Amino acid sequence: MPYDYQPFDYVAPRGLTEAEPRHPVVIIGAGPIGLAMAVELANHGVASVILDDNNVVSVGSRAICWSKRSLEVLDRLGVGEACVAKGVTWRVGRTFHREAEVFNFDLLPEDGHKMPAFVNLQQYWVEQYLVERAQAVGTDLRWKNRVVGVEQHADHAVLTVETPDGEYQLAADWVIACDGARSPVRGMLGLDFEGELFEERFLIADIEMQADFPSERLFWFEPTFHNGQSALLHKQPDNIYRIDLQLGWDSDPEVEKQPERIIPRIAKVVGHSDFTLDWTSIYTFQCRRLRKFVQDRVIFVGDSAHIVSPFGARGGNGGLQDVDALGWRLAAVVKGQTPATALDAYDRERSFGADENLMNSSRSTRFMSPAAGVERLFRDAVLHLAARADFARPMVNSGRLSKPCTYPLDAPDDPSLPDGARPGSVAPDAPQGDGWLIDRLGGQFLLIAFGEAPEIPGLPVIRPQPNALVIRRWLGSEVTGLYLIRPDQIVAARWVQATTEEIAAALAAAQEGRT
Amino acid sequence: MSHLITTPNMADTDGFYASLLAAHRGLTEAESHALNARLVLVLANHVGDRKVLELAIALAKDGAS
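ok -> structure tokens follow
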């Protein structure tokens, strides 16, 4: 069943008739990233205004693959369980060359996590849940409010906003630009968006049909049903399937957009014409980023800061990790608990994350869409060998799916503790009775203790039940352990044993963005 | 007994693949051929075992038209 788009109400903003007081935070863009940002800030006690130039959720499914880490973040925001309940859970990807399966991957081979490896869910559903949540936490959501000007001042920024009833000005201590890949705000500030454009086009289509494709990611190199090109199929809820078809750079997007061109192509993929087109689009591949995500009083988050080519699900998921890294820090700055220099750590960490995403998606793109000559030669050689020798199978690159990076923190570490829980990593989840460890983390700094815990004022201590998975993921062969966990559920520092002073120093360094 | 490893034997295959393509960037087709040839000779010397090399040649030729 296609999604029933319900427009949100435009209400004439106060700023049209009287000067509004300066807001602590104004967010531009009510996509998944802007909405998540508002809810995350609200969870930290900071109210925000969201401005959006439209008045409906995402048209078309757009971002559909939500990673385990994103689901954990969304869960902290109060919509994770709804996303899992509505979405299609999957963890296995299969890659074919012509008819034969040449490579497969299992993204979460081990149980014992609250959230699955991936959930496919149309962006409009995620946005709907987040809008409901943002409204529930009191976010000032302003539809049909288009930002047409940005002026930077020493300690604030002033936006010029266009509405159906005219223009008004809105001042904010901090502006968060979540206005997407084409970010008008980036343009208004005259910022370079550095990187590369790949000479490739893909057709993307959502179709509605009754079918029993498995809940797996299916990718084909050179399938017989799509001559010489690549194809991808994902299952979504409501009998909607996502199909991506490589078109090549020589294709004419205007021609390829026509349903009479699209329907026969899709019919060859699914083997019949018993489907309806729900949404289609044609896209090119780009890998670009801003050099700095914090530009004075304007902070870039999500696609406005960095764009990657698809096939790694690193766009929306990367954006939610930006939200994760920024929310608690900006809230502390707004509340005067830490100097604004703490935001440098957002820039540093998410630049690292963006670069990892860009590297992976550039590599996948080169494999999927090799330049003529030697790139093509090696790509075809890998596919040829993959059918004959196991070693070539992991070289087949149809996308390396989003995993959270481990931030390179300069923080206390004891490498005798398990590698997967080293500083900079997402705190590993594990079962706890009827619940999950991850549910007990987040929102504030806290200490996870195995054994004795020194007392630090304002730092709650959590003592997990030491079941087998907890021991494997958190202690390894050690008997004691202390982990300092950040509000974004990232391990900030860890010790086998530590003094009060050592923990307090690591806490201050993490709060101030020095690690 | 000589044995050709055909199971994955390398960490970070994506990194190796990227570095291989980077080595070819900006080369003409003839220059790329020459680079590949030199690379095969260097790696063959590293492998050293003649029987393994024969197995490698046979695997590379398999199915090629």
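The mean pLDDT of chain B is 95.
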